[in-house]
Design a protein that fits this description.
The structure holds 2 protein chains of 2 kinds.
Chain A (H helix, E strand, L loop, with lengths): L1 H22 L3 H23 L8 H20 L5 H30 L5 H28 L11 H21 L4 H19 L7 H23 L2 H25 L3 H6 L11 H5 L8 H9 L3 E6 L1 H5 L3 H13 L3 E6 L9 H8 L7 E3 H4 L8 E5 L8 H4 L18 E6 L19 E5 L2 H14 L1
Parallel strand pairs in A: 1-2, 1-4, 2-3, 4-5, 5-6
Chain B lengths: L1 H21 L7 H11 L4 H10 L3 H31 L5
Helix pairs in contact in B: 2-4, 3-4
Classes of the chains: A alpha/beta, B mainly alpha.
Chain lengths: 460, 93
């Protein structure tokens, strides 16, 4: 009877998770959705505490108190600009928890049960593998986003990955044949950890949205695998939901860069044959402007579109940008934001920053929605973005970013680009937009540039 | 073996539900979706609680304790940070 009630509680939790994610389909219902998820988790944990195997509570309570304290501290301290790091770290913790639970379950099974069935050890091995890859991969992603780790391009990285995967698989097979070989499990975890490191180390900054989405998916799959270990449907349902979510986001990110997942993961760039040097593109054509001139340009504008990029996050410019937008709106200018799916370092990164600065979400437009309107736009202001507004993606089929969907900023009547220098973006190619006839450059850090524009507009 | 088939059924159906709902989430909410779904992937906490409380051996208790700590950080940190972000999204007034 007790077992039935506990399982029903897990079912209720799973339903609440589904309803919770469903709430995320609109900003109005999202807060309630998140709370439904939290209630579901509470129900699941209470059900776990009532499990008849649970005989003592000291360690559980100690762990929950410690974990909740650390989690709450992280969640309240983190800056919105650092959200990608935070999500990467949390992904990693979920992954390692699954690996450790699977290890503990294996030890328990060896102590208590006479026979360990193969489906159990297969699930244990899967949980150990995915969890360890998630943990170490996420730590590297965290280190990169935090600026602690540089990109390391190893020669023969693919060979190394293939080797590590082969070793991990061999250890998994060993474990299935001989479940008593506990060492094989921990050796598997070590080799999967190395695999996680070598997979993420070579991946560059602008590809982080893909990596984080993928690790998000892995953390879900690790939980689902642990669900198979424990025969627990709550874990299986939840894990597969999160797994699906991560896969969808990964797919959206890859499409937004017009690259395949293998291309991102293994860094296979198509070498460009006729890469124009930046001198050819820029020489004598780039027009640097002063904030005063740009203010005059904006004074005559009726519609302005702002295109934020990672540079806005780096210089924490969202509040300065908001002030500029409010000033423009006071003067009757229509202002919208154009957000490229891979702007920033994780899916939706720019939206969160703008929301933090009190920009209403209706004002943030997706690429497909806003692209047709650039022709009717008087001024487009690009703030710290580069590759996502590079017209070469449309015009030059041999460019490394050929075919990547971009924001058609160059179609606006005038373009203002706030950027510190002419240095190339992640793709490493010059951007003809900066040398276009209708483009004026404001060489400044995003925050200072936005402030200068606002002050010039006020003064003018 | 029967149990495994039931579990697999649940797994596959849940993936379909996931695909159906999540494709409807707008790009504006992709970051909260990640942190929120991340929080619920801390459901491993259930397994961790059982390991830490079952007292089968000292080693499994310690492993369970560690897993409880990691999973709780994941759960509490994930839900709280999602709440913080979602509170910022507002309509035009």
């Amino acid at each position: 009877m007790r077992e039935i009630l506990i399982n029903l509680a897990y079912l209720v939790a799973a339903v609440l998770f589904i309803l919770g994610i469903k709430g995320m389909t609109h900003p109005r219902t999202a807060v309630r959705g998140n709370r439904l998820g939290a209630i579901g988790m509470l129900i699941a944990v209470v059900a776990a505490l009532l499990d008849r195997n649970v005989v003592s509570y000291e360690w559980v309570i100690a762990g929950v108190v410690l974990g909740a304290g650390l989690g709450a501290l992280m969640a309240t301290r983190v800056q919105m600009t650092d959200m990608p790091q935070m999500v990467a770290l949390l992904n990693g913790f979920g992954g390692i928890a699954s690996t450790v639970v699977a290890g503990a379950a294996l030890i328990e099974a060896l102590i208590t049960g006479p026979v360990v069935p193969p489906q159990f050890t297969i699930a244990v091995a899967a949980s150990g593998l995915i969890g360890a890859v998630t943990f170490w991969g996420s730590l590297v992603a965290f280190g990169k986003l935090q600026g602690l780790v540089r990109d390391i391009r190893l020669g023969g990285a693919q060979l190394l990955n293939a080797g590590l995967l082969a070793i991990t698989t061999a250890l998994a097979i060993w474990l299935v044949i001989d479940p008593a070989a506990l060492w094989a499990y921990w050796a598997l975890v070590v080799s999967a950890s190395l695999l996680g490191l070598s997979l993420v180390f070579p991946i560059g900054g602008a590809d982080m949205p893909v990596v984080i989405s993928l690790l998000n998916s892995y953390s879900g799959l690790a939980a689902a695998a642990t669900g198979f270990v424990l025969n627990n449907n709550a874990l299986i349902i939840t894990g597969s939901l999160v797994g699906a979510s991560g896969v969808i986001l990964t797919n959206i990110m890859c499409k937004a860069m017009n690259r395949s997942l293998t291309n991102v993961l293994f860094g296979i760039w198509v070498p460009s044959e006729e890469a124009a040097s930046s001198d050819d593109v820029y020489a004598g054509k780039v027009k640097a402007a002063h904030a005063d001139e740009l203010a005059m340009l904006m004074e005559g504008a009726r519609r302005v579109v702002i295109v934020p990029g990672y540079g806005m996050a780096v210089s924490q410019a969202q509040h300065a940008v908001r002030d500029l937008v409010m000033l423009l709106e006071e003067r009757g200018v229509e202002v919208e934001f154009a957000i490229h799916p891979v702007a920033g370092r994780m899916p939706g990164h720019m939206n969160v920053l703008l929301a933090e600065a009190d920009i209403p979400y209706e004002q943030m437009k997706e690429m497909d929605e806003i692209n047709p309107s650039f022709e009717q736009t008087d001024v487009a202001i690009v703030i710290g973005a580069n590759d996502v507004v590079n017209p070469l993606a449309r015009t030059n089929p041999s460019s490394p970013i050929a075919g990547m969907p971009i924001l058609n900023v160059d179609k606006a009547r005038s373009v203002i680009v706030i950027k510190r220098s002419l240095s190339p973006g992640f793709a490493g190619i010059p951007n003809p937009l900066f040398a276009a006839d209708n483009t004026l450059m404001l060489f400044a850090d995003a925050k200072k540039g936005a402030l200068d524009l606002m002050n010039a507009l006020k003064a003018g | 073996m029967e149990l495994l088939v039931v579990s697999l059924t649940v797994f596959v159906l849940a993936i379909f539900i996931g695909f159906e709902i999540i494709t409807k989430v707008p790009p504006t909410l992709h970051t909260p979706l990640m942190s929120g779904s991340n929080a619920i992937s801390g459901i491993t906490l259930v397994g961790a609680v059982i390991s830490a409380g079952a007292q089968v051996s000292f080693l499994t208790t310690i492993l369970g304790f560690l897993a409880v700590v990691f999973a709780t950080i994941n759960v509490v940190g994930g839900f709280m940070v999602t709440e913080r972000m979602l509170a910022m999204f507002r309509r035009k007034d």
